[in-house]
Amino acid sequence: MSLTRATLVKDLRLEWRSKDAINSMLFFALLVVVIFSFSFDPTAEESRSIAGGLIWVAFLFAAVVALNQTWAREVRNQVLDAYRVSPAPGNSLFLAKATGNFLFVLLLEALMTPLFIVFYNLRALGPAWQLPLVAGLGTWALVVNGTFFAAMSLRTRSREIMLPLLLFPISIPAVLAMVQATTSILTGEYSARFWIVLLAAYDLVFTTGCLLLFDIVLNAE
Amino acid sequence: MKRIFPILGLLTAVFLSYALYLALVVAPTEQTMGDVQRIFYYHVPSAWTAFVLFFINFAASVTYLLRRSAKADIVALVSAEIGVVFCTVVLVTGPIWARPVWGIWWTWDLRLTLTLVLWLIYVSYLVLRKFSTSGQTPQVAAVLAVLGALDVPLVYFSIWFFRTQHPQPVVGGGGSIDPVMLHVLLMNWAAFSCFAALVFWSRYRLETLKREVEETQAVEALLETPRSVR
Known about the structure:
A: 84% helix, B: 230 residues, 78% helix
């Protein structure tokens, strides 16, 4: 646990000083929002039913930008090899990286949500207090698998392109759940409860799976 | 083994032709759908074969993670490859049938979506195998196969709920099936399974030989003694 905290604090400090990931993510998400906004140009009524999809597609693409940089820092000076030699469990490293990414993507979402509201004239007709819950569970769903597959794609040629190819097919149920939950809260037409439960189940299954299998990926020779 | 292979190949070809004859001539024409229904004898057996192969892939991947045997890895690779081929057949024949019968090429129905997502996962599995550096491929691929299998029930429940909320287009089938049709279907499935097993076996042999050659070459390159060249 102390290793998790140490790695997490180190990553946050590095990110605070460089702001590499958050800047590129923010600008990328901004571009997606602007391009979507003028390519669809929806009315308030329409935007309520499509915004759930647009928001999450924008965050998904932006998250990939950050996730791709997760392990780059550790590879550069063979830090990852040092981790493998050390007696520290691989899981705590994974947990730190996933938490770091989770915080970055949450920050991105907090900054981008006002922009979405402005560009698409959004106002939730359903219970808005559920939105942070959906955001938290959904972001963890993307980030836990994303961090895992980013570590996996270190083992491949053309790393950057591998991550979305691995992440997107597996994330289909999570993305569907996030989009449907958000849409149902925005339109207020039906309850989002099933989707929130599904997201929680998804998080539980894949967090467990990733923690069990991470050592194999870390130590793959 | 070399002598058995052509015989088995010939037998499979005869069986497949017989199954084709059954599907096109012997099976009765469906009342409402007409001849287009006959695609069913290719569509359904391909789907069953693909799902069996994907299951073999999952079992082999788990075996690999537990035992680290190279054979399990080859089985996983080969079953995923052939499974993707059969799954592609399913995804191509499905819309051809759906267009005249349902009036649409595609719908986000439970089975359709599940098949498509499975296809996507296994294509990404094959892409990963293609792009990863050789020594690590088996482990990384087996991990992906296990995670992909974990995804299947979640996809199932999400689509199930997604589609029970919205009205479905007309879904054909269900209920009773003519015994002759069932017989033809099962014969076709048997023929397809034989074909899949034959391809599986030859692909397995090929992959084993390929790895042996690579190993020998690596050893020879290491030794570099004049005696290795006769």
